[in-house]
Design a protein that fits this description.
The protein is α+β, with helices and mostly antiparallel strands and 136 residues long. It has four helices and five strands; from the N terminus they run αββαβαββα. It has a single domain, classed as 3-Layer(aba) Sandwich (Cytidine Deaminase, domain 2), CATH 3.40.140.10. Bound molecules: tetrahydrodeoxyuridine.
Length: 136
Amino acid sequence: MSLFDAAAAARRNAYAPYSGFQVGAALRTGSGRVFSGCNVENVAYPEGTCAEAGAIAAMALAGEREIAEIWVIADSDLPVSPCGGCRQKLAEFSSPGTIIVMAGLEGEKARTTMAELLPGSFSTDHMTRATPGGGV
Ligand code: THU
């Protein structure tokens, strides 16, 4: 199954009664496995989760740790760009060249890379002087 088809199938199960905006995501890992997710909203609005977060959780549960490519699909004229929080979540399991594709219901609308999506991202490189047990 293509990542477009997997993301579209995931989107059909999105739970979005508050925004009315259904989103699906599907990613392929470095080893070639595919995992998908949908947005799951909540009456306590900030508790809702994005489609990308669902796909990442499914990937981690399967023991996979490396995203090679991810597709995000929604019914929108503009390509739906992963939110700031999702960019950081994606960066955790991506390399600079990880491909992010934004799709509408008819297919691809735009594509970019992790490096372009979240330049200057916070990483363990910034924590070389961290002191475990410190900061109490
Ligand atoms: N949403 C996602 O699932 N992924 C994105 O990349 C953008 C936004 C969801 C969150 C919320 O359920 C709805 O879209 C409207 O913001």
